[in-house]
User: Which sequence fits this backbone?
C-alpha cells in the first residue's frame, strides 16, 4: 500500500502541471473509493 501511495503522489506531482489534472484527480478519487 505504501508503494502505491508514493506512486500516486509522484504521478500526482507530474500530472498537476497538465490540463488533465482534474480528470486524473477524479479517477484517483474513484479508485480510492473502490478501495
Assistant:
Amino acid at each position: 500500500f505504501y508503494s502505491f501511495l508514493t506512486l500516486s503522489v509522484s504521478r500526482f506531482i507530474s500530472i498537476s502541471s497538465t490540463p488533465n489534472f482534474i480528470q486524473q484527480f477524479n479517477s484517483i478519487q474513484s479508485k480510492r473509493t473502490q478501495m
The radius of gyration is 10 Å.
